[in-house]
Amino acid sequence: MTRSRTHCRRITTAGCLFSLAALGGVTAAQTAGAAKPADGPAIGSQAQSFTLADTQGKRVSLSDYQGKVVVLNFWAFWCDTWKAEMPSLRELAPRQDELGFRLVAVSVDSARLPEFQNRTDGGKVPFPVLLDNQKQVSTQYNIAHVPTVVIIDRAGKVRYTARAYPGNHVILAELRKIASSGG
């Protein structure tokens, strides 16, 4: 399975079978019994609390953003999509105060952390990048593929999930929906 610029996958047996089925190598009936990878937490579920270190070693908790909408962007440094997403995320970040949300990236690895730090002037980005090296948070949130976006409302409920970065226009539309519903 190759890593594309727009979507990376964590390789699992079910993911490989699904990919083979899509390519015609395995029939749908053969994959019917295989476990399907999760696509993030269930919409409407309570977001799981967590605390992780950022790329500078500072501990950051989801509870630090209590009462705010939170956009979690799960990625991996080994998956080059973070490089493609960075201009969009930098463009989205200045809208945090205006729209009442916080953008937080969660990397499921730190294997290429030095490259990230070199490309971002020592890790200087307008949002925290947290390190989930033990994959505790990504497991809690049922993240089977990176990148995955999870939006949590002010009450701590999961309101949106997407495999791959859907683009700022989609994120902004979801944030407006949440704001209009009072969430």
Number of domains: 2
- CATH architecture field of the largest domain: 3-Layer(aba) Sandwich
Q: Largest sheet at a glance?
A: 7 strands, mixed
Secondary-structure-derived class: alpha+beta
CATH superfamily of the largest domain: Glutaredoxin
Instruction: Work out the radius of gyration.
Output: 17 Å
> How is the CATH topology of the largest domain named?
Glutaredoxin
Instruction: Count helical runs.
Output: 7
CATH class of the largest domain: Alpha Beta
Broad shape = globular
The share of residues in helices is 25-40%
Beta fraction: 15-25%
Spans of 5+ residues with little confidence (pLDDT < 50)?
Answer: 1-7, 11-38
N- to C-terminal distance: 39 Å
What does this protein structure show overall?
This protein is α+β, with helices and mostly antiparallel strands and 183 residues long. The protein has two domains: 7-37, no CATH class; 38-180, Glutaredoxin (3-Layer(aba) Sandwich), CATH 3.40.30.10. Helix content is 30%, strand content 21%. It has seven helices and nine strands. It has helices at residues 13-22, 28-31, 81-92, 96-99, 113-119, 136-140, 168-180, and strands at 8-9, 51-54, 59-61, 69-75, 101-107, 129-131, 145-146, 148-152, 158-163. The strands form two sheets. It has a seven-stranded mixed sheet with strand order 3-2-6-5-4-8-9. Mean pLDDT is 82; it is low at 1-7 and 11-38.
TL;DR of this structure?
With 183 residues, the protein is α+β, with helices and mostly antiparallel strands. It has helices at residues 13-22, 28-31, 81-92, 96-99, 113-119, 136-140, 168-180, and strands at 8-9, 51-54, 59-61, 69-75, 101-107, 129-131, 145-146, 148-152, 158-163.
